[in-house]
Transmembrane protein 170A
Amino acid sequence: MWYGVFLWAAVSSLVFHLPAALLSLATLRQHKMARFMPVAILLMSIVGPVCGGVLTSAAIAGVYKAAGKRMISLEALVFGVGQSFCVLIISFLRVLATL
């Protein structure tokens, strides 16, 4: 049950980070040091779901298991994409707070 939520979180995280990596690759390719920024962005698209996504997916699955409910694929999609969307919103709000 947790695996479905985790996979959707990982895929949606990659979908959110891939355009940012491509944009930074296109704009920073001439820079001496910043040309490696797309690698860091793509690594974060994998490391984030592996570290935090596994824990939150297991917590969601634990609640479903304790309630005795069965999770359908659409619910896994909603929870997985919701996790990535929450991370995206929190990231933007954290950057705006420093301005």
Notes: Residues 2-97 form one domain. Residues 37-67 form the longest helix (31 residues). The chain has a mean pLDDT of 90. Residues 17 and 44 are 8 Å apart (CA to CA).
